[in-house]
Amino acid sequence: MTASASAAEIPSARRDFWAGARAVATLMPGAVLFGLAFGALVRVVGIDPVTGFMGSVMVQAGASQIAILEALRANAPAVIAVITAVVINARFALWSAAMAPIFAPFPTRWKLWLSYLMTDQSAVITLQHHERYPDPVRRRRFVHGAESTFVGVWLIGTAAGVTLGPVIPDAWQIGFIVPLMFISVLVPGLHGAPALVAVAVAAVTVVVAKDLPYGLNVLLGSLAGIAAGAFVPDRRRPDPHHPDDGLAHDAAAGE
Amino acid sequence: MTAFLIFLAAGIGTFAIRLSGVLLLRDRELPPRIAKGLSLVGPAAMAAIVANALLLDEGAWRGFGAWHLAALVAIGVAVWRRTSGVAMAAGAVAFAALLLAGL
Questions:
Q1: For residues A188 and A252, what is the distance between their CA atoms, to the nearest angstrom?
Q2: Residues A197-227: pLDDT tens digits?
Q3: CA distance A100 to chain B (A)
Q4: Residue B46: its chain A contacts at CB < 8 A?
Q5: Which of B6, B17, B52 sits opposite A218 (nearest CB)?
Q6: How many Å apart are CA A86 and CA A114, to the nearest integer?
Q7: Which residues make Cβ contacts (< 8 Å) with residue B78, sequence separation at least 6?
Q8: Do the bridges between strand B56-57 and strand B60-61 make them parallel or antiparallel, or are there none, so unpaired?
Q9: A120: helix, coil or strand?
Q10: Which ranges does the record mark as transmembrane (chain B) (predicted)?
Q11: B19 at the A interface (CB within 8 A)?
């Protein structure tokens, strides 16, 4: 750092944290809406609102939380409810493996905390942006900013949902936010034959395996896409400094 | 109380899954094909989530309508503008318009 460097160039903990928050901000409306929907379902099923809110604190994965509520509503055995939720969340093993090299230099307590806060959306944002942060401390702050603010709005949405009850009419079909959110993140940066093959194989496998229970078709589709894409050669020589992960590295930030 | 314990058990199990790769793979040098596979987790998992949510409805085919058309708008804008915020806004506006039009 030279004396002529402007203040704007000086890395600060707050700036990296908020860069992470800004990068995930476009996906936050989806988290608020789904938090609202989950919270409203807590009221409909008749669960204590505080317990429902704590569900969002402890699990932080909307689809599996809704599956737990549906199991409770159907008077399913507790063990079935837990297993269903854990199977739905098995995809996090893939995100976790992808995060391993990114989190590798972090202290163990940060690995534990950032793994606890991991969501589909913040994992995607981390994969897109981590190369901008070769310094592990700055990278950790960025990841923390993306993860904690995203979970924060999920909890705010849940709190509003358990307080207000079902305020979103069914006719609005807010479920559409899920494909819309991931299309918006996936498509702008999609490039390279391996990533395109991974996407195509994953999508086809999901619909072919649609009769699998517990949403296992999503996990199977992901694995099939990854396996197929890994065997497709890159057209250009791989650049070790900019590994091609088939994702945009300039999208989403500050949009 | 039962609901709290179910959420707690599911939370512990999910945390273990979220931690699995981060702890087990930490400093290990991975074979190139595995490393390449990990780099495809993002596109593959997102495509799987999109296909499941868009094309299926609780395990059955979703009838063609506003969901598909608005998704096509979002994909088209995403390819054209290459920015996620604009694609998301376009998809949301298209979806709202299609619902209002009765689709």
A1: 9
A2: 999 999 999 999 999 887 789 889 999 999 9
A3: 4
A4: 120, 124, 182, 185-186, 199
A5: B52
A6: 19
A7: A183, A184, A187, A188, B84, B86, B87
A8: antiparallel
A9: helix
A10: 6-25, 37-55, 61-80, 85-102
A11: yes
Q: Pinpoint the alpha helices (H) of A209-245.
A: 216-230
Which tokens is A46 given?
Answer: 């008749």
Say how many Å lie between the first and final Cα of chain B, rounded. 43
CA distance A57 to A52: 9
**Mean pLDDT (whole number) for B47-54:** 94
User: Closest chain A residue to B30 measured between Cα atoms?
Assistant: A101
Rounded CA gap, B63 and A117, in Å?
A: 35
Residue ranges of alpha helices (H) inside A165-192 are 177-186
The residues with which B56 forms a beta bridge, in sequence order, are B61
Copy the structure tokens of residue A14: 């707050």
Query: Which chain A positions have a beta carbon within 8 Å of B33's beta carbon?
Result: 230-231
Interchain pair B14, A247: CB under 8 A: no
- The answer to whether A5 faces chain B, any CB pair under 8 Å, is no
